[in-house]
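The following record pairs a protein chain with its ligand, adenosine monophosphate.
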Amino acid sequence: MKKRMLSGIKPTGQLHLGSYIGALKQFVDYQDEYEVFAFIANLHCITVYQDPIELRKNLRDCVALYLACGLDPEKATIFLQTDIKAHAQLGFIMNCNTYMGELNRMTQYKDKVAKGEKNLTGGIFTYPTLMSADILIYEPHYVPVGEDQKQHVELTRDVANRFNNRYGKTFTIPEPLIPKIGARIMSLQDPTTKMSKSDHSDKGCIYLLDSPKKARKKIMSAKTDDLAQVKFDTVNQPGISNLIQIYSSLTGINFSDIETKFDGLGYGDFKKEVANVVCSKLEEIQGKYNEIINSNIIEEILADGKTKAEVLANAKLDEVQRKIGIEIKM
Ligand code: AMP
Ligand code: TRP
């Protein structure tokens, strides 16, 4: 039997090169080897206010991009988090099995507090408990995520172990699967911070739906250094190292071969080559996206995914509820 793998992406804003390289690409690369469950975390995204009209559009885009990036609905189960009501219900149960101290230690939450962000919601604080439910309800062996989500998967493991100890073996303990290359793609404008939808500068982030012309411009103006050598050195050359990671992840060429290939060439030549590789990937994705976005296959695929995921999720939730004693029946 194939091992199972599950992951999700929030449909907040548009998917970018970081979400593709750090997460989505792994779902696609592993879909033959594993039984992949890939969902859209549309509950997690409302932990921060979203404009409803924009959110609805982003939701469709997100599913279309899953498909355009190569996820095959014949192999992977693709669904919306809200279509499986058991996620939120198990989320509350997980919330009751997680300590405030654990949630207080989550860097994603701590960073928001440290930045002085106002009006943080309860949803942001308890976010990892819903994520634990998303994962544990399907008992995957692996959870492919970027570096920033590793801590949440580790918390999931702790909570699952605690639950199993209290109530008897119920959950498989999942492992985070962090890509060796590209687990943290950095902003092109500030290579010490990660590429993100909430980047202050639009120039630092390449969206999967950016026109190739725009993407090329962003790469050509990416921040580098004055050391004039294409070398992987995240401390002294974070900008160049980031471009090396992007290039390596998209071509499969390893770092030292990249260093050799560009030895003696200027940053302009290197950036041009990175831009060529990124733009041809974007063209490929956008070509498929344009075919998908106006068809009704999105609804069909989600309905199909819902049917498959729901059976597993409901059975697990039922088992959990019986074990913790909130059901009359045994
Ligand atoms: P999000 O878009 O925040 O839901 O993230 C979706 C997935 O992409 C998660 O697994 C993240 O860890 C991953 N991810 C997001 N941004 C980056 C980045 N800059 N580099 C690598 N992975 C990322
Ligand atoms: N929290 C993840 C992110 O921000 C999205 C997510 C929600 C997720 N539930 C998940 C990822 C379960 C993996 C498994 O990227």
